[in-house]
Amino acid sequence: MYRMLSLRSLSRNKNKLLANKTSVVRLNPELICFQNFSHLCNQQLGGLATEEIALLRSVTDTSTKQTKASIQQLKAQKLSDFINNQIAQENVESPENLSKTSTHTSPDISKWNFVETPVIYIGKDMKEMELPNATLAEILESYRTLKEHHERRQSSEATIVEDAIEEEFLEHHEASVEEEILEIPRTQKQKSKLKKGKQTQEKGKKFDSKNYKSSEMELLARHKSFHVTLHAYLDICLSSGMINRAYATVLNYRHKRKRKVTDVEIYNILMHGYAEKGIILKIKDILKILKEDNIEPNPQMYAAIFECLGRMETTEDVEKDALTYLEEAETKGYTMDTVLNQSKFVRDQRETVLNLFNQLKPGFRPVYTPPKLLYGNHLLNSLNEYVRPIDTTAANKSDVQVGTEIMNPKAGFTRDQLEKFSKAQVELELKGHLTVKSIQKFPEANDTVKQYRKELEELRKVWTKQITMALHRDVNTLKAVTESKSSRAINLFPYVKALNVAQFTEILLDEAQMLIEGSDSFSIGLSHLHKELGRKVEARYHVEQKRQSGVLDKTCEIYSLYCDVLSEGNSSDNSRQLWQRLVHENRHDGPSLDVQSVTWPKAAVNGVGKFLYNILKNDLKINVNATSKANRQPKLVPAFYSLFRYEAKIAKEQIKPHPVLIKLYRKSQQENLKFDINLVPMVCPPQPWSTPVNGGYILAKSDLIRLPQQAHQQSERINEANPQDMYPTLDALNQLASIPWKVNEEVLDIVLEVFNNGGNAKLDVPEPPSSLPSIVETIPRNEMTGFDRFNMVRKKMTHRRKQGDMYSLWCDALYRLSLANHFRDKVFWLPQNIDFRGRVYPIPPHLNHLGHDLARCLMVFHQKKPLGPDGFNWLKLHCINLTGLKKRDSVEDRLKYADEIMDDILDSADRPLTGRMWWSSSDEPWQTLACCIEIAKVHRSPNPAKFMSGFPIHQDGSCNGLQHYAALGRDTAGAVSVNLAPSPVPQDVYSAVAALVEDSRTKDAENDVKVAKILEGFIKRKVIKQTVMTTVYGVTRYGARKQIARQLEYIDEFPKDWVWPASSYLTVKTFNALSEMFTSAKEIQDWFTDCARLISAVCAQNVEWVTPLGLPVVQPYNRSERQASSKTIQIPEHFSMDSYEKPNIMKQKNAFPPNFVHSLDSSHMMLTSLFCERAGLTFISVHDCYWTHACTVPTMNKICREQFVALHSEPILEDLSKFLVQKYSYNESEITNDGSVIDLTKRKLNRILHQYPDKGDFDLRQVLKSVYFFS
Predict the structure, then answer these.
(1) In the record, which residues are listed under signal peptide (predicted)?
(2) pTM
């Protein structure tokens, strides 16, 4: 595809085209396809001057951005004239004239068999026109020539930084970049070059005040991002065997840049590359550079030196050099032990260095620094009592340890089972994906289906050959282009050599299948697809690196020892302490396990994705007659095509499979689904998080924190922090991930029956898009008025959007149920990570316990425990809680109600779809049904107390955000309303707010306020519940208004014309009621907001804090530089880094209150998790909803309350104030006392940071006795 036209210019002229009814082209304002439009442009090129042709053809995405306004206007005028001429000619030309069109193409081409209609296709609407083969051959030949010219130009631009990323890090852009991209005629070139060069230099000197804090910060950002990009490039060069290329690149930037390459780790990479080859001369050259640039060596550098000397043949000179460098290292404080302790090793590097040390100092035995196992947080001091000294072995079978109950939730598996599980997991991660059988029901495959499947299989083989050939061609082309450049800048070539051809081919075939499976009405933007495909390549590369570096074998060795201890169950260590102990005991050989994978920069990721997608679009072909019965003659066309869809008035490029390809795929009734390995649960216990970079999947990279790409500041804070500060967070993740799960097979079978019978909207089982009635045109098109056509277009757009939504929900259910069916007879685990606030999430998105009702009902604990004396009551209570029918009743009344409706519960369990279906009217119907089935089993068992159950019982916080606010402010009235204080029946804050709103409405109605009268009888708990719940999490008045409006729309009796005015009225009343009820919460929230506003505005810094458990938090809301979309392989941008950019003040101040409260509820959950683990309980959480076995609910409830009191007994507001003052306040020397606005705002900042709200007199210890605090 050749993008001939600028969308902006085309948009200005589309109305002219639409107005002309005889035109062969019809433009749709939503969808523009350029696949076959280029030849239309080509027909007109003969009438333009040479200069005009060059100018017209230069309208590409890159040049459009870089061309100044005058040139853009000239191009727009040329395009306008060109399109107007086309329309005029089409109005006067007849088919007879067209048939006489002469051709200037090869005679052979005219004999080819082409598809005659449609010739031109723009948008959904088509216009057919008959053309003779000769004319069509001329058009296609001209189009191919133009396309080849464009592809050759693309190939010449195939470096990331040769003329692009290099430019992003230089302090002054070069004018030659613009000169190379714009094909301006020779007569204008010199003038344009000089003018552009001057403008570019001026731009280079200009400080980007919109995004960066200062010019120095802008330079630091460029410098830092340059080092990150260069670091990744050198790493990929070494893994691809391009050590000399890497060295030349470093020398190039060292001599070219004003700011030198100062990161010692960059030189360490080079030195290890030459050390592996034993080239000491290159290492000495690098050491000279370090000395000249005043870069201090570190232990890792000396490790590289000693590795190189250790690989060389032992001679007197080598030994002399080794002693010299050892003396030099010792003068800098680096002993042999220091080098071995503080360096990271891969492959046989450690052994090589050790052998050299033994030659220099016979009998040398390294002493490794043991890890610190204990917590450094006083909230967790009591958990340190059971930790054995580090010199104690990880597992001593003869000892009976104290505190071994910590192993109980992980127990139940033999060593052979765990070993089998781990081998299966490693195989899956090496493969990179999991294939499961789809639960979608198809009729039995007939001969036609089998033929379609055979066609697809043949097509996959053909595509494999096409991709293989294209990869060899394009990689070699890229190599030739790269080597032809005189500059030694960072380029794309090493990245496209990251994997072998077979691996790239497999990834591209999977990507093609993903596109075919997509929705007809929705496509992901092409730039996003580039990024995701690049990330898949990067993930596979990291796995390959672990295999080649020996990290895989070492990890499997440690994991095998870990399985030994798990199977014995004779340890008082938690998962992290156990893993640290095993790693320390086995540090004497092999690679280091804490080697951090080098993350590729965005430019490289997008570049690789773009490179591969060009192959997918240009080289994969489909036979359009593959599904035709009338014409079986092969006719190959591209399998995928590009289109543009408008999103918020911006046309975004998307990619779609050919309709024949979609038909072929769907008619073949594909029975399997393929998932990337990091999207599915693990089949063995996850690797414990022992550091912020090690944990989760065994080989596949797992991110500890879910952060946007530009957010580097929080990672920096974590790296700067004491490692012990992260232990509580890591251990909580490990505890949650250590719980084994299984699928609730009985419920799964019922859900599958409903799903395969067309779904059920009432039960939240998605219906297929085909069930949506199509739009019927009741008025003939020729009789429609303009208003009728407008309404029809709007209805069709709404219908298409609804179809897309239904398809998305249907696919989500299909994936979830297919995975659940795959794991129905297996045990599985869910690795966990956190967001920037500390909230915990399972990494696999499709099958987990964190979703909605349908997701939660499918999962139960693998480990079963006897119910005990009270377990059956907890089951019945849980069932009634799920229905939502008795929210305001006491526990005793709920249990009585459960006994009264036992017949309905048993009927639901016995005849879920054919009986009275009592369960279906519940708030959480599927979870209620699952509980009914479990209750029926217990009810019919001979001894309920001994019944073995793995069913999880939930305990929910009562509007947990307000609970934390009430505890922070010691607000007695607020504490009572959210059940922090004991009460005979649960207090319902939502009903209380609704009552206050109703009282206010009644008064307004008496004063003849019309909207108040309209709302009579409609102010119910459900209408304002979501708004009350989300108020503490920062919902805006507009958002609250939409929430209330949505609830009013669900009430059939409410007049629809009054939904919006009534929602506006109720929003004000609800906020007023909350301010009246929770005065302390409002004061705290306002203080949070004021602090964040002043910090981000006056200090120009992100708001950050440290949670009570030691997790550093930084709000990642910045005014980042606009990221240019990846339209070509060349990406002229540097990536954003939040450390140097201005904060987004609005987001910072609005988000601080809810984010701080989220970090508190996460801290409470983690404390509960760690103490439950130590007590031997199975514990799982969904934020503020805690799960455990029925028999251990009382113990969990006790721990939950104790830890809430312990958490809020800390001076949280005081500590926050001290932290903010220390970090953001101004000293007297920084205040000028000149009465200026800046001076006053600095003083105000200092005052606000000190003035945290006063507290009330609520006694936190009352929480210990509150039954309904969590219930």
Answers:
(1) none
(2) 0.81
